[in-house]
Design brief:
Number of domains: 3
Radius of gyration: 22 Å
CATH superfamily of the largest domain: ATPase, nucleotide binding domain
CATH architecture of the largest domain: 2-Layer Sandwich
Distance between the termini: 29 Å
Structural class: alpha/beta
CATH topology of the largest domain: Nucleotidyltransferase, domain 5
Strand content: 15-25%
Largest sheet: 5 strands, mixed
Helix content: 25-40%
Number of strands: 14
Number of helices: 12
Length: 406
C-alpha cells in the first residue's frame, strides 16, 4: 500500500476532477495544435460535452483560440483549436552583470528582446527593468500581457517570494517582485534559473515520458533543477538543487558562498576563463563568448580551458547521478555552444566512476541560448494557468504536467 501524507492529501472532489481535466485538455491543445474538439475527446478519453465545456472556458480566459475549419472528405468540418498567440508574457533573465528582457508568446516564441547592464544597486536594476518592459508593452500594444516571469541566479523562498540565496548576484535584501508588481501593475513570478529552465523543457522541450531528470545551468555559477517521479523538487525554502555549492576540494578557490573549492569554482564559465588566463598569461581579460570563438579557431589555451571545464562538469555530475539516479541530465548555458567538443569529455568523466546501473543520457537544453528566458515565461504561464480557476488558491510552485501524450 502506498503511504499517503494526510496533512497534504487532496480529496478527489468534483472541483479537483475539473481542474485535472482542464489541465489535460490545455496540454493536449499545446502539444497537438491545431486540433479539433472531437480529437481532444478521443485523445483525452473525456466525454465530448465535457471537452466542449472546458474549451469554452479556455477560450473565455483567452488561453486558446479557434483557427481554420478543417477540410474532411465527408462529414461535418471541425473548427481547429490552437494556443492563443496574442497572449504573451514579459520575461527577464538576470545575470550578475546584465539582464535580458523579452516578450514571449504561449508557444515559446521570442517576439522581441533587449539586453541591459545590471546595476549592483537592486533598486536601480528594478527601475531599469521596468522601464524596458514598459517600452516593450508599447511596442506590442496589440498583445494581451499575462504577467512577468523572472529567472534569477539564486533561490526564491516559496512563502515570501523573496530572493534568499544568490552569492553571485550579491544584492542586499530587496523585494524585486513587489517593486515590479507596483510599477507594472501586473502579476510577477520569480524562480531560480535552473528550475525555470526545467519548467521550460516540460512545456516546450523534449521530455515526453521522462520522470527523473536533472537540469544543470552552467554560467557564472552552477545551478540545478530536479525532476523526481514526474514532479519538480524544490525543497525547503526552494533551496533544493544547489549542487554548485557542494565542495569538491577544500583547498580550491574561494567561492561566492564563502566556502572553498565548491563545484562551481571548477566548472563554471568563470572557472574556464580563469583556466585560460592562467595558461595563456593574456594581457587582457576576455569574455566567455570570446573564449568559445578562440576555441573554434583551435587556440590551444582556449581548447585546454574548455576541456578542463568540461572535465570538471563531468566530475560534479558523478555526485548528482549518485544521489538522484536521473535518466536524463540536461545542460543549459553558453557551454552548449561548444557541445560537440565538451559533451564527450563530460560523458567520459561521468562514466569513469559511475556507481552502477544505466548511465543517464546527457543532452543540451532545447534552444539553449534562450532557455532561461523561455523558462521564466513557462513558469509564469504554468502558475497562471493553474490559478485561473477562481475557486482555487493560486499555486506557489511549478509542477510538471502529468498529461503527457504519446
Amino acid at each position: 500500500m502506498r503511504r499517503i501524507d494526510l496533512t497534504r492529501a487532496e480529496l478527489a472532489s468534483s472541483e479537483t476532477a475539473r481542474r485535472i481535466n482542464r489541465d489535460i485538455v490545455l496540454e493536449l491543445v499545446r502539444a497537438r495544435q491545431p486540433i479539433s474538439r472531437a480529437d481532444l475527446a478521443r485523445y483525452s478519453g473525456l466525454q465530448r460535452s465535457t471537452v466542449s465545456q472546458i474549451i469554452e472556458q479556455l477560450i473565455e480566459e483567452r488561453w486558446i483560440r479557434e483557427g481554420a475549419v478543417a477540410k474532411l472528405p465527408r462529414g461535418r468540418r471541425p473548427t481547429m483549436l490552437l494556443l492563443n498567440d496574442d497572449l504573451v508574457v514579459l520575461a527577464a533573465d538576470l545575470h550578475p552583470r546584465q539582464v535580458t528582457v523579452a516578450v514571449i508568446d504561449l508557444n515559446g516564441r521570442l517576439l522581441s528582446h533587449a539586453e541591459l547592464p545590471l546595476s549592483h544597486d537592486p533598486q536601480k536594476a528594478a527601475t531599469s527593468i521596468q522601464e524596458c518592459m514598459r517600452r516593450m508593452r508599447t511596442l506590442h500594444a496589440g498583445k494581451s500581457f499575462k504577467g512577468v516571469g523572472i529567472s534569477l541566479p539564486g533561490r526564491v523562498d516559496d512563502q515570501t517570494h523573496k530572493l534568499i540565496f544568490a552569492p553571485n548576484l550579491n544584492w542586499p535584501d530587496f523585494d524585486l517582485r513587489l517593486a515590479l508588481e507596483k510599477a507594472l501593475r501586473m502579476p510577477v513570478e520569480m524562480e531560480n534559473a535552473a528550475n525555470a529552465c526545467l519548467t521550460s523543457e516540460l512545456w516546450f522541450g523534449r521530455m515526453e515520458g521522462v520522470q527523473n531528470a536533472v537540469l544543470i545551468t552552467v554560467s557564472e555559477g552552477i545551478g540545478g533543477g530536479i525532476l523526481a517521479n514526474g514532479q519538480l523538487v524544490t525543497g525547503q525554502q526552494g533551496m533544493a538543487g544547489e549542487f554548485g555549492h557542494i565542495p569538491l576540494d577544500p583547498r580550491g578557490p574561494k567561492c561566492g558562498c564563502r566556502q572553498h573549492g565548491c563545484w562551481e569554482t571548477f566548472a563554471s564559465c568563470k572557472a574556464a576563463l580563469r583556466y585560460y588566463q592562467e595558461s595563456s598569461q593574456a594581457a587582457r581579460s576576455i569574455t566567455y563568448h570570446e573564449l568559445l570563438a578562440l576555441a573554434e579557431e583551435e587556440n590551444p589555451h582556449a581548447v585546454a580551458a574548455l576541456t578542463e571545464q568540461a572535465r570538471q562538469i563531468g566530475r560534479g555530475l558523478r555526485l548528482v547521478t549518485a544521489s538522484l539516479a536521473p535518466e536524463l541530465v540536461l545542460i543549459a548555458g553558453e557551454v552548449t555552444s561548444a557541445w560537440n567538443r565538451v559533451a564527450p569529455i563530460m560523458r567520459t568523466e561521468l562514466e569513469s566512476q559511475v556507481l552502477g546501473g544505466v548511465i543517464p543520457r546527457i543532452q543540451p537544453t532545447y534552444d539553449s541560448e534562450v532557455a532561461r528566458l523561455r523558462g521564466a515565461a513557462a513558469m509564469l504561464l504554468q502558475r497562471q494557468a493553474a490559478g485561473s480557476n477562481s475557486s482555487e488558491k493560486r499555486e506557489k510552485r511549478p509542477r510538471a504536467h502529468s498529461a503527457k501524450t504519446k
